[in-house]
# Entry
Amino acid sequence: LTDKTPAALVEHALAGNRRAIGRILTWVENARPEGIEALRLLYPRTGHARIVGVTGAPGSGKSTLVNRLALEERKRGRSVGIVAVDPSSPISGGAVLGDRVRMEELFGDPEIFVRSMASRDALGGLAETTGQVISVLDAVGKDIVIVETVGVGQAEVDIVQEAHTTIVVVIPGMGDDIQAMKAGLMEIADLFVVNKADRPGADNVAAQIRQMLSLAPASAARRPLILKTEATTGKGVAELVTAIDEHWTYLNEERRLDRYQNERARRQVLALARDTLSARLERLSTDDPSVARLIEDVADKRVDPYSAAEQVLEKYFPVRSPDRNP
Amino acid sequence: LTDKTPAALVEHALAGNRRAIGRILTWVENARPEGIEALRLLYPRTGHARIVGVTGAPGSGKSTLVNRLALEERKRGRSVGIVAVDPSSPISGGAVLGDRVRMEELFGDPEIFVRSMASRDALGGLAETTGQVISVLDAVGKDIVIVETVGVGQAEVDIVQEAHTTIVVVIPGMGDDIQAMKAGLMEIADLFVVNKADRPGADNVAAQIRQMLSLAPASAARRPLILKTEATTGKGVAELVTAIDEHWTYLNEERRLDRYQNERARRQVLALARDTLSARLERLSTDDPSVARLIEDVADKRVDPYSAAEQVLEKYFPVRSPDRNP
# Structure
């Protein structure tokens, strides 16, 4: 890697060079212009990978399950990308799980690429960056990209919206808050996995989920399956991969995938435009002294924040009517 | 409540009418124009309340602890608002904890106002709406507003940034992922609480936190205290309230509170402006057929999303240089 321009690295990445892929991902994560340049070049190559999201509460054994999933996909001859998204520091942005030990089997295999990501950006940028990392792994030819998120907040929900198939992992005996979590995750789940299914209470959790699902409106999409796994031994993982495959078949029926691609494109374009506008706003708050003064007036309760926001918009972002002509 | 204009309801709310407060909060949560109108009127009355954020992983006993905190604050003669933020459905927006049973003692007391909130908005709007709910409770005269968030994701971090004092709740024996969670929450915590401290391992968790804190740079702000509580019995809660009071005293030294208010005002103004721009973008994607077509081109990989976003911005949001004259 002597020539480190985006164009050169993209070429190396497309040829399977792991260091080139890694460097492009670092650019993307750090929101560097080189990352955007690389993504522009890679974009026409995307659209091949199947994206599988895995989410659930802390302690549910997601990482082990993801490792097992990756191994099973490899057995079926597919190359695998893993993106582990960490709920790490809003300030230092350090990837606390970056050094988490992944199973050795994974690291020896050139057809598996693992990336740990930190959540650096408070402006909802995590989902977007994750989407870009997925796009890179998709473009360089991974058949399956597994996105693992730790946590059950809105950011995680946003992230798994990037996935074709979303797996929600629960375990027996998770306490009171499981009700709350399940409700939040109910509508994004394509598959439920009761992991650590050897523990007492596994059937009980499965029954709880089944009952909540039965309350969903009949108009709702395909009812999610509920599977049991023991990630530490690998039990149930082959069945899980088969269920993921079946969900993929379902998506390919009746143009569902087209709608998904269109919705994803819409989200990407709007998010990028929004980010640019957001960055412009941030700069105005320091670069224009009258905006800085306005903010002080808000802090001192002389002006309300709504009027202040309106003044900023009027000055810098005047409304233009949409062009309705086709 | 016969006159249901914002001005009339604001007057009733300021006089302590709970139904008026409730209706204003519903407007605010549903992003209704009446809510903005009410907030404009209430804004000059804000700035009195102390805002306490309570966050931590699911199952840590946050709700019970918040109830205990509220009772202890009442003992000290302060009126209390509680805002419970739920990680609920991105689709239905239902507040799954809305019907959670709060201790009866709380509900009988006219000086306590409890509000459960759902997370309706995927665009990072939850923190903003929470901030507005806090502002309403502040303006109507609550001395303390306690914000409880379920979860440990970025959205929760954004929410607790609204707080003067942030309490991170952990419990003994939370499993592997506690490391990850603590790192994420380490830098936002003003106080750590080891709840369920009667369980084995409480000292161990406290020691783990202490050790992680000892690794923080010396330049960092005030080192957080670590307290132990048993929320179910109330043990340790009086000490916790005293620690919150001490943190308030600390904030009032050396103009730290002014800086906090200014930063909060900046965040509010920028978030409001950002939301308006974001809504304009969303509308364009349906109202302007050429934008809709551009998105289809992105979905079909004929145009990359970066170029598409640029085209939308050029057409509707041309850059205006900041006015640098004071």
